[in-house]
Write a structure and sequence with these properties.
Layout: E1 4-5, E2 8-12, E3 15-18, E4 28-33, E5 39-48, E6 51-56, E7 69-76, E8 78-81, E9 89-91, E10 107-110, E11 121-122, E12 127-129, H1 133-138, E13 141-142, E14 149-151, H2 157-167, E15 169-170, E16 178-187, H3 189-202, E17 208-214, H4 219-238, E18 243-249, H5 251-264, H6 278-286, E19 290-292, E20 298-306, H7 315-323, E21 326-329, H8 332-336, E22 349-350, H9 366-390, H10 397-414, H11 424-435, H12 448-454
Parallel strand pairs: 9-17, 14-20, 14-21, 16-17, 16-18, 18-20
Antiparallel strand pairs: 1-7, 2-3, 3-6, 4-5, 4-7, 5-6, 8-10, 11-19, 12-13, 12-15, 19-20, 21-22
Helix pairs in contact: 2-3, 4-5, 6-7, 9-10, 9-11, 10-11
Length: 459
Amino acid sequence: MIKEYRTIREVSGPLMIVDGVEGVTYDELGEIQLTDGSVRRCQVLEVNGDKAVVQLFESSAGINLADSKIRFLGHPLQLGVSGDMLGRVFNGMGRPIDGGPAILADEFRDINGLAMNPAARDYPNEFIQTGISTIDGLNTLVRGQKLPIFSGSGLPHAALAAQIARQAKVLGDDAGNFAVVFAAIGITFEESDFFVQEFRRTGAIDRTVLFTNLANDPAVERIATPRMALTAAEYLAFEKDMHVLVILTDITNYAEALREVSAAKKEVPGRRGYPGYLYTNLATIYERAGRQLGKKGSITLIPILTMPEDDKTHPIPDLTGYITEGQIILSRELYRKGINPPVDVLPSLSRLKDKGTGEGKTREDHSGTMNQLFAAYATGKENQELMSILGEAALSPTDLLYAKFADEFERRYVSQGTEENRSIEETLDLGWELLSILPATELKRIKPELIEKYLPKKD
């Protein structure tokens, strides 16, 4: 039986203390009824004896301690899931905001799902094509992988996120069984409108579930949004056997909300004021992605975060790097040169790239060209630095060709704009075209038979 309490003792910002509670559990939902009959929702953050600390989803203004009533609903925050979610837009609490009807749920799921059991995990080994050369060709994304994008304030990560969501697909027999779950966390109304209009313009909305949490929404809603997205993804992947790509942007806003709630609870802060459990909390999100033994579907995760002051050692990118399998890093220097997307190839890494490349997955020459392009670009950048210090005359003809290669690589391979969708074959062919700038004797990381087969013949 649901009890009502009139024992609200204190309201402090978004937090409220209730005395004399019985049988209340962590994360349980509650409803506060005000004297005017309006109802506000809240969530239990902490239980100590017969005292409960709850956090409001809305403002605490107007709550009269003596006359307001609170009741606890006996379950945590839930999302009603169904195959009809595809093509719909929801707010951060899972309510439709696209003017369409409410979802007829197949079931209601606790959004605080569990991280995938390591013993139940299947190894990621199938290629996902994003249409972006720097990811497909050099930092290949694999089904079931967690591959974050590290950006900086003012860099075009929103456009890159929208481009990946529009263009991503799996190849082969599963091509029609692919969905995108996109969660925008703590963004402005303009950004939210950009994502919705962009997906509608290109028709990508039909295979997308979109959750948008705005910057003026409560902090506790921001904490719920990525969990809403992953709950929807788990249902589509493991109940409907779909291959789901989950894009979360911006994880930095999520971590800031976590810090805000932690400060309101007067917890002892950790590094830079973030709670000491930030690592564990991020892991509860990231580790829900992957492939399960005996299940056809998969969840692939691309969290996007802006590094405060472009600092890779900041707690958010630092801890994210420990949990995930690599990172794609955006470069401010390349962005200033007009290169879009400004992916910094050399520090970027996909730890599982070798598992998704090769014959039967991409093409037999993929691994060799990937390694050769990395090596040639690194050498070209070094030679450009030498040229700026010692002058062009100090470099050999081959060194000058490497410097030229680095320029062409950035201009033609890295830069492709937001509308160009390159197939993996186009990406690999472009790589060979650029490698033809160098003498064939310099291509030491590719098998001779592949050079003979794929290297364009010079006139």
